[in-house]
Inverse folding.
């Protein structure tokens, strides 16, 4: 067998990208208040801001789009997708939403109240935002190894079961349900093992709490289980996914990830206990139960995408792509969360900027430097995203300063990755010239999306 792992698809339609100069980019970033979220996408050469809704759809998906049934009630497209989702998740109740955060909002509004506590391995930023804006505490209980970027471990997304048990004992009355995010996006795109999912489910059950999974990247998580967890080598990724879901009572999903579509999301529930409350909220916030927040054509694209996302050749290539960039970063002496996750590589900004004070937001500074040097857009996962300015003006900081380079699905080829590896190595060489930033304007929630900055 040849050693080169190829993209298991060929290109049918292309989208040109615009090359800019460093001088262009200096102006463009200044106009965007030093926040890459505020750049025009046209001004980005390699857009690794997110893997969310940014991937390429297949010819089969584009074909399915023409079959979308746009009926308001009872559309054929709903039933087609419902069948696919029931098959994968084993859960009877499927509630479509326009994306993952809407699924969260609809579910949380139905079952949480102020003063509650929701434990998770790590809450994603919209999950945290949705809970905190309702006065609910979003508690992160990822295993200690998940917070050590350089430590190798096959399942760094695992939840710390002892801490979970302690919280259930102590604060049980305030906990409406427990969560697990697979893969753990905030903690580095790291997978959760089947053993951990099973044990977490058992613990929650013992305390009478429902178990909700955030399953944005369930297919990547399942592939990691196949590659890394003894006993699953010969199980199909789909069967592994089905087993993961079998332990849960419900799930929220952003279909913009492993659903392989540009928009969409859903809630699934095993029992009908919460269903009336969830559907009432859905009708108010999203739409009628058979389309929720999606057009019929989007339901069709997702029905195909969920199956394509479980294709093992595709998943092997995808996980290998991240691993390959990791090898190039290792060679350049740039630290990153190890092993590489499914959808992204998380650069440890402290290995590039060890002396920059956290008050100058080193991961944000590195993110800006990657754009200025090579037109690459990543996202800061550090103290801008997860730090907070209290009412007293005092700032709290995050435990890690990461820059996430997230890879849209089926979009960039190996030469794009080679280019990026060169740019990152160059930035590391010039690290002494990278400038930190200060925040000049920020909103109260999810501040990284719209905050404005100046050089520190
Ligand atoms: C993307 C994401 C969400 C939110 O989904 P959107 O579709 O962006 O609203 C929630 N949880 C995780 C883990 C995610 O990666």
């Amino acid at each position: 067998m040849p050693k080169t792992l190829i993209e298991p698809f060929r290109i049918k339609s292309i989208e040109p990208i615009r090359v800019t100069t460093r001088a262009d980019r200096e102006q463009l970033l200044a106009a965007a208040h030093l926040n890459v979220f505020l750049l025009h996408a046209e001004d980005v050469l390699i857009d690794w801001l997110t893997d969310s809704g940014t991937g390429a759809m297949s010819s089969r998906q584009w074909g399915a789009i023409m079959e979308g049934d746009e009926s308001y009630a009872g559309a054929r497209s709903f039933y087609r997708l419902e069948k696919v989702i029931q098959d994968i998740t084993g859960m009877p109740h499927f509630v479509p939403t326009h994306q993952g955060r809407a699924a969260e909002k609809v579910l949380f509004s139905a079952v949480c109240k102020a003063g509650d506590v929701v434990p998770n391995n790590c809450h994603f930023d919209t999950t945290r935002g949705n809970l905190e804006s309702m006065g609910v505490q979003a508690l992160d209980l990822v295993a200690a190894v998940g917070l050590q970027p350089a430590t190798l471990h096959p399942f760094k997304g695992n939840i710390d079961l002892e801490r979970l048990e302690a919280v259930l004992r102590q604060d049980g009355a305030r906990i409406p349900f427990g969560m697990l995010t697979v893969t753990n996006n905030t903690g580095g795109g790291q997978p959760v093992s089947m053993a951990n999912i099973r044990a977490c489910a058992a613990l929650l059950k013992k305390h009478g709490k429902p178990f909700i999974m955030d399953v944005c990247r369930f297919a990547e998580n399942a592939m990691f289980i196949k590659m890394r967890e003894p006993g699953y080598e010969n199980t199909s990724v789909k069967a592994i996914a089905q087993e993961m879901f079998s332990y849960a009572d419900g799930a929220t999903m952003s279909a913009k990830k492993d659903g392989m579509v540009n928009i969409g999301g859903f809630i699934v529930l095993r029992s009908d206990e919460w269903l009336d409350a969830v559907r009432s909220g859905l009708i108010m916030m999203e739409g009628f139960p058979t389309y929720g927040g999606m057009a019929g054509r989007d339901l069709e694209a997702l029905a195909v995408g969920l199956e394509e996302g479980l294709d093992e050749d595709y998943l092997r290539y995808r996980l290998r792509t991240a691993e390959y960039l990791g090898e190039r970063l290792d060679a350049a002496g740039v630290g990153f969360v190890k092993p590489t996750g499914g959808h992204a590589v998380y650069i440890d900004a402290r290995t590039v900027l060890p002396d920059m004070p956290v008050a100058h937001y080193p991961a944000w500074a590195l993110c800006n430097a990657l754009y200025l040097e090579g037109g690459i857009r990543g996202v800061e996962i550090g103290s801008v995203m997860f730090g907070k300015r209290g009412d007293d003006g005092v700032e709290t900081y995050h435990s890690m300063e990461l820059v996430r380079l997230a890879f849209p699905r089926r979009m960039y080829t190996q030469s794009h990755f080679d280019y990026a590896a060169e740019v990152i190595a160059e930035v590391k060489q010039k690290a002494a010239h990278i400038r930190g930033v200060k925040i000049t304007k920020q909103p109260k929630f999810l501040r990284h999306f719209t905050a404005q900055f100046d050089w520190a």
Observations:
- Residues 88 and 239 are 8 Å apart (CA to CA).
- Residues 59-308 form a domain with the Aspartate Aminotransferase; domain 2 fold (CATH 3.40.640.10).
- The longest strand covers residues 93-97.
- The chain has a mean pLDDT of 96.
